[in-house]
Amino acid sequence: MGIRLKSGFMKKACIVSIGDEILTGQTVDTNASYLSEKLVSIGVPVVSSYTVGDDIESIVKSLKLASSDADLVLATGGLGPTDDDITRQALAKFLGAELELQEELLQEIQDFFTSRGRQMAAKCKVQAYVPAGTKALANNLGTAPGIMAETTRPEPGRTKGKLVIVLPGVPSEVRQMFEESVLPELRSFAGGQAVVIRKLRCFGTGESNIAGLLGDMMQRGRNPLINCTAEYGVITLHIIATAKDRIQAQQMAEKDEKLLRETLGEFIYGTGEQALADVVGEKLAQENKTIAVAESCTGGTLAKLVTDIPGASHYFTHGWITYSNEAKTSELGVPADVIAIYGAVSEQVAEAMAQCARKKAGTDFAIGITGIAGPAGGSEQKPIGLVYISVDSNNGCETKRFVFSHDRSSIRLRAAQTALNMLRLKIYV
Amino acid sequence: MGIRLKSGFMKKACIVSIGDEILTGQTVDTNASYLSEKLVSIGVPVVSSYTVGDDIESIVKSLKLASSDADLVLATGGLGPTDDDITRQALAKFLGAELELQEELLQEIQDFFTSRGRQMAAKCKVQAYVPAGTKALANNLGTAPGIMAETTRPEPGRTKGKLVIVLPGVPSEVRQMFEESVLPELRSFAGGQAVVIRKLRCFGTGESNIAGLLGDMMQRGRNPLINCTAEYGVITLHIIATAKDRIQAQQMAEKDEKLLRETLGEFIYGTGEQALADVVGEKLAQENKTIAVAESCTGGTLAKLVTDIPGASHYFTHGWITYSNEAKTSELGVPADVIAIYGAVSEQVAEAMAQCARKKAGTDFAIGITGIAGPAGGSEQKPIGLVYISVDSNNGCETKRFVFSHDRSSIRLRAAQTALNMLRLKIYV
């Protein structure tokens, strides 16, 4: 099952993931899926993907296979400073070129360490070498530059004129380098058909309900194709429109976006990569409103989500993690007898937490969360996953009861996300 | 960087992941890493891994490549009932065999639906077909059986006598079928060698420094092999011992673990999958000590890490997220003039946060964190990534200054982890 793109006369890509740690299963390869999605979004379908260990012959073989499958080869991993990082050497061998020291690169690597008040380890010097005739790609987050090469010299087992780009394996570096260094190089390379992908992000209902509401729109073979992925309650709908040119594809995607918005209404909270905390934060900043949070079972998860967003200090001021009953009373002022009568996990305590937090912080909104994240502490009346969430504002206090499933970490994240969603539905009215 | 296994005279495996949704990046392939780890644990190293779309020719090609790389091919995906699921046909083509209806299988699939009070969709009948001469593998969680084949007939492009196993792509089904149907078949296949993997988790120094300290021990080709992976400051050393039997491999791994512990000392904080918050929490619980946290730039990240651990309520009681200056003063009691004189991001404020938090919460330990997580807000004197962390206890208050690199999210996570590490070094003395 999956997403199929028409790939008639487009340029194609192959992804090569390099690293023993992937082959042994110690690391899940998230770079391949990230790069695939990015490539598809610029109209370059990925036709195959290879994973090999840190072994020169295997890497060379995979680069040969990849460049025979596709016009663009994107490889990650093995550019680090240690002995087992040998992608640099393998690329040189594949290209039939020698490794050359680039003084400029060496300077940049040294500067990287100097600016952090550290000395460059001798081992790092190897990262200033690239195969002759290739181009280094800047890495602002680490010391290993990427390398971009074009296969020009005809040699046995190697196809001519393919673009080969190698990036370090660290996911954050892959992401930043792809956006800043690779994408600009690829824009001209893509050509041919245009693929436009729009993502709509939903919260507050399940995947099967969304599939039911959309019906035929989710049929395979339809263009635009509409697909759906789910993660911790966030459901992402992908509208994938393929057309001869970008404008046409864009129009098709826009038309479907409108249709989906009409059908799904307030389930849709955002687009692209937006998190719930993004759209909530945007609105709060826009309207000059402020928020405080008081958490028990989520233990900081909600505050973390809120402050993950750059500039959160414009609207987020105070957070309390009142994990013990005593902290709920001493720090927030939740009456001890309310806790004694109804229990720490109750509608009344969630409400008091939100109300007290708002009063103490002097904010426009406050959220209170109390629940049982498990794996222990559940009872028949108050099962694991039971969470009360309260949102207080000058329009009064709304408290809801939820029972989330799965494990401790899912329950905590779902509770925090659901709190943000309750706030969203309040501030976007 | 990664993990290398000696693979001289062992049987080897190759993994093939099939599905357009993986190639387009809509789905992260977690089956490959799961299967890799399982195979390595029974002494069958994975030497390569291929990902292809739902396309007969691509699947056949990948099966050929895979069976030339390895003795065992484990493929997943494309066994579903819909039109784009064509792995069954591709396997038949690869084997040079016809698909045959197996009445028994059809009955099982029908029973699967009947037992759930549903009717079998006509499309599901296709799942009762397997290539002639192959064996169906039971699937208790879904309707698609797996298929096990041995390549016996010599044909061009295909190597003789390789074991090819195909499983459906649903991760839960892969896991269950591997444990229940595949593993028993593989025990005899693996034969010979035993592999024991130990993981040591380190914090407080960089990968290159650890490599420097270990020197020759990290040499490729050494047995046990010692490899290292890094994520957000946590460095995991893998000791991979290969021997004729399990006991011998275990002894070799133990000997190396002792050596590593002697060399790296307090950099090693734990084993296996342990997080810093696990070992810190364990010790606090053991010694009946309590902790509170006061966070600014980390905005709840530290509290979340602490409360990620089940049972954290035994030692964690209070947390404050004093994101604004006013909150630092009103909630914790940090003197306003200290903030005015030294700035919110200063040694003095971190110290006051920790001391005030400990006093207010009445705990044995308290941590204060203040810094600049970026992407805005940095200056020459106080750059992005500057973080002061303070740990207060009845032995006094220790405050340290750090400059973390990378992006906002890395800076926040590194700061929170570093705080836990400072606490660890205090409580494990």
Q: Which stretches of chain A are poorly predicted, pLDDT < 50 over at least 5 residues?
A: 1-9
Structural class of chain A: alpha/beta
Radius of gyration of chain A: 26 Å
Main sheet of chain A: which strands, in order across? 2-1-3-8-7-6
What fold name goes in the CATH topology slot of the largest domain in chain A?
A: Molybdenum Cofactor Biosythetic Enzyme, Chain A
- CATH homologous superfamily name of the largest domain in chain A? MoaB/Mog-like domain
How many domains in all of chain A?
3
Quaternary organisation? homodimer
Amount of helix of chain A: 25-40%
- Give the largest interface: A-B, 99 and 101 residues
What topology does this entry show?
The structure is a homodimer of 429-residue chains.
Chain A: E1 13-18, H1 20-23, H2 30-41, E2 46-52, H3 56-69, E3 72-76, H4 87-95, E4 99-101, H5 103-114, E5 129-131, E6 135-137, E7 146-150, E8 163-167, H6 171-190, E9 194-202, H7 207-214, E10 225-231, E11 234-243, H8 246-264, E12 268-271, H9 276-286, E13 291-295, H10 301-307, E14 316-322, H11 325-332, H12 336-342, H13 347-361, E15 365-371, E16 386-393, E17 396-403, H14 408-427
Parallel strand pairs in A: 1-2, 1-3, 3-8, 13-14, 13-15
Antiparallel strand pairs in A: 4-5, 6-7, 7-8, 9-11, 9-12, 10-11, 15-16, 16-17
Helix pairs in contact in A: 2-6, 3-4, 9-14
